[in-house]
Amino acid sequence: MSGYLTPGTGAIAGAMSSASPQGRGRRWLQFASPAAFYGPAGTLAALLLPLSLVLALVGLYIGFLVAPTDAQQGDAYRIIFVHVPAAWLSMVIYAAMAFWSAVGLVANTRLSAMMAGALAPSGALFTFLALWTGALWGKPTWGAWWVWDARLTSELLLLFLYLGFIALQAAIDDPRRADRAGAVLALVGTVNLPIIYFSVKWWNTLHQGASVSVSSAPTIATPMLLGMLVMALAMWFYAAAAALLRLRCIILEREGQAAWVAGLAQGEGA
Amino acid sequence: MIWLSFEEFLAIGGYGGYVWGSVLVTGAALALELVLLARRRRAALLAAAHASRRRQA
């Protein structure tokens, strides 16, 4: 990755403002410029996508051809290999979105806010998938597609937080104001994350408790756990790639007047 | 191998509809997201190219 750190292309030089800080911090801060990060974001996404596909194939192989049938739930439990990773990602992406929102508010860097905006649709998608696969798991095991239990309800609230963030950003014309408003909403919404995570402990939920946690040994068979972790890694890489690709779109849309974008647009024969 | 036949694998112990409904919708949704991103990128480049031509004219 050290290639990314060498400055000197026209885009990077052009993007550096004369006010950028000097010294050791400068090397990293130059990537806070949307123009400079456009290229590396594409390279990263191009690395992450195939990696994610390979991991997904390995994870599905373990989950569907190696992992044994569950003694209690039969084979319906195999939904775990998409449901749990999707649900984890729905929360991880929100945390990342809140993190970049906070950085954007504090440091007033445009790229951080763009990053938050790039993560939101992917987060909403993974939240939807967690709810969808959860419904398909709930029907055969609980007899209901949906129940208003604390875990399900707080996850639904997470979907509304994502959609609210997207709608709020879209509703404000001035991008800088839209970024700030979105960032405040994203930060307020973080209180929902521990509620989702601990809901199965704090309340008596129909949703089962955690099979995997940091503090105790996993309560599921090794191939089940392995399949789940590999799938989680696959989805993590996928989500990062999708967010980086969306970040590139946002950069192009917002910097459409810049000379480097015009050059790129003509160069690619768009 | 845990399945005795391909049919048995597809049936997933009688839960085939639920399990494949989860896996396939997830895969399709993620694939669709990539397609939409590629289209959004093309549209953004197109818009930028138009804008720069207008400025030159």
Record the SSE blueprint.
The complex is a heterodimer of chains A (270) and B (57).
Chain A: H1 10-15, H2 26-29, H3 34-66, H4 80-107, H5 110-142, H6 150-171, H7 175-189, H8 192-202, H9 222-254, H10 259-267
Chain B: H1 6-11, H2 16-56
Give a brief rundown of this model.
Chain A is mainly alpha-helical and 270 residues long. Chain A has helices at residues 10-15, 26-29, 34-66, 80-107, 110-142, 150-171, 175-189, 192-202, 222-254, 259-267.
Describe the structure.
- The complex is a heterodimer of chains A (270) and B (57).
- Chain A has 270 residues and is mostly helical.
- Chain A is built from 10 helices and no strands.
- Chain B is an all-alpha fold and 57 residues long.
- The longest helix of chain B is centred in the middle third of the chain and has 41 residues, at 16-56.
- Classes of the chains: A mainly alpha (270), B mainly alpha (57).
- Give the end-to-end Cα distance of chain A, rounded to a whole number of Å: 29 Å
Estimate the global geometry of chain A from the Cα principal axes: globular
Quick check: average pLDDT of chain A? 87
**Total number of beta strands of chain A:** 0
Could you spell the SSE succession of chain B in H and E letters? HH
Q: Element order, helices and strands of chain A?
A: HHHHHHHHHH
Secondary-structure-derived class of chain A: mainly alpha
- Quick check: average pLDDT of chain B? 92
Biggest sheet architecture of chain A: none
Estimate the strand proportion of chain A: under 5%
Quaternary structure type: heterodimer
Uncertain runs of chain A are 1-21
Distance between the termini of chain B: 68 Å
Work out the largest interface and the residue count of each chain: A-B, 45 and 31 residues
Overall geometry of chain B? rod-shaped
Helix count, DSSP H or I runs of 4 or more residues of chain A: 10
